[in-house]
Structures are given as C-alpha cells and as structure tokens.
C-alpha cells in the first residue's frame, strides 16, 4: 500500500509540519520577517479553501477574493471604529467625503464582537445565497468559473464606486492594532504569528475530517460523476452549495487575519489576479491535497517575495509557465511527486523492485 494514502501517516505529516511552523518564532528574531511569515499562513488558508472547493468538490472558483475581501473590509471597519470615540465617531476619510453622520452601514462595527461576527457572517451568507442560486440552476464547470469571475469584478467596482463609505481606491487603514478586551494583538509579535497558525491548524483539522467523512465522500463522488450521484437520490446542488459556502467561510477568516496583520485593506483584494493566484497556489502544490495546497501557497508567495523584485513583471510569465508545466506533467501538483516516490518505495519493498501496480492502487483515495 502507498504510504501516501495511509490516513495515520497523513495525520503524522500534518503534526510534524505544524510543529515545525510553531517553532519558527523561537528561531528567528526579525519581527518584520515574522509578520511576513504570518501572511504566508493567511495565503495557506486561502489555498486550503481552494483545495476544498476545487480539489475535493470539483468546483473551479475564480472569485475566492469575494469572501476574502468582504471579510477583510469587515475586520478593517471593526478596527477603524476601535480608534474612534463618542466625540469623534467618524473616520477621517468620511469627513473628507463630506459625510455628516456615521453611515448606518458602519454603526454595527462600533461593537468589536458584532463587527467580527459580521465580517465572517456576511461573506459566508453571500456564498450560501450565490452558490445556492447557481447550483440549483445547474451552473457548473467553466460556466460557474466565469460567473464567479464576473461577480468578483462587480464587487470590486462596487467598492470603488461607494467611495464615501469605503474610501475608494485608497482603502481603509486602521491606525491601531486589533484590540480584544484588554489584549492588543501586535501584528509583528509572535502572538500574532501563533494566532494565525492556530486558526490554520483548526481549519486544516476541520477540512481533513470533512474529507474523511461521509459528506466528503459524497462531495468527491459529485466531482467524479455528478449525474450518477443525482440518480442515487442525493441533492447535488445542496452538497455543492455546502462545500462552496464552507470554502468561502475559510476565505473570510483569512481576510480577517490579513487585515489584522497588515492594518490595511483596499479594492486590490478583489483584483482578479489575486483570486487567480489562489488557484495557481493550489494547482502547483496539489489541489487534491490539503497539505499540498498549503505548501504551494508558501512556495509561490515565498518565491514572489524574494524573486518578484528581481524579475518584476516577468515574474508573472515565469509563474504562468511553471503552472502550465505542473498541470501538464504533474496533474496532482508537486505533492504528486511525493505520492509517486512513496508508491515506488512501497512496491520495491513488497515485490523486490517490480513495477506492477496492485489492484485498486489507481482508484481515487479519500482525504489526501
């Protein structure tokens, strides 16, 4: 048996991976680098959400920036209102746009708890409604991908157009870090890094358990043959809506964490290039592997941070070419190399180096 498909080995790989990441703040003393690594954790959560939706659900989502951006704006509004007081309740950019009263849209965010709940609930509700409408109409495949891309552009345009409420292209820059009661979360501190890591661990565990459950097996069956699953009596639209909504919730959490770390949000979070990058992370790392997708995000964003300034716009061509090569020759992404290596090792141990493939070896394996 290929050790790659052994569930206990998979859990062990997750454990080792996250223990190594948890030790990072103990090994480096550069606060800027620690903040940068924390943002990689945010990108890893986005790649995880794409892996759930596209890899396991077979739903190519080119608009994952929508829940990410909505969550980011909700958290930015919450943090901005924390810096305002009763005598000066309006953010400066609203005064510059000739507003005289705090808009009704902003008033719930004066309460930190309500603001955080709304930052997570609004994008999740949007995914639930939008996904329900699309999947009940049996919009799927490239048509669904195009619809998500169009909706992403619509949201970006809306954020720009309502400048008095969102500060338009300049975005929102909360002047102070997030405060939770008496605790202030310094975005350059180990506490911020471990917070991001803890939420990424929770998201990974939830996603992993989901893929191993009956729900996960039905989702993967829909990915392989939706019509057959529909004929068996399952609500395909319901399952597709569920996995799309859960994926959107994880993206919303990532958006909240992004603003917490950067203290900034702008319409760039709704840029199509950013959403396409999420798909590239998952595709290169391995969209059918949760860990592979996360590693893909770390690898690509790390390379961009250190090579992007050198190659400038050429970096996008390099990344696109690399993505094409991986899709063409490694359909399961870079993590597929690990699967092939472990599979060859297992066969060599079992039959003394024979190349025969055991029966069932090529069948889909759940919860990779």
From TrEMBL:
Membrane topology of the entry: Multi-pass membrane protein
Gene Ontology CC: one annotated term: plasma membrane
Origin superkingdom: Bacteria
Transmembrane segments: 12-28, 40-60, 113-135, 142-160, 191-210, 231-260, 280-300, 312-330
CDD domains in the record: TM_PBP1_LivM_like
Presence of keyword Zinc: no
Pfam families in the cross-refs: BPD_transp_2 (PF02653)
Keyword Transmembrane attached: yes
Location of the protein in the cell: Cell membrane
Keywords of the record: Cell membrane, Membrane, Transmembrane, Transmembrane helix
GO molecular function: branched-chain amino acid transmembrane transporter activity
Name of this protein: Urea ABC transporter permease subunit UrtC
Species name: Rhodopseudomonas palustris
Gene name, Swiss-Prot/TrEMBL: urtC
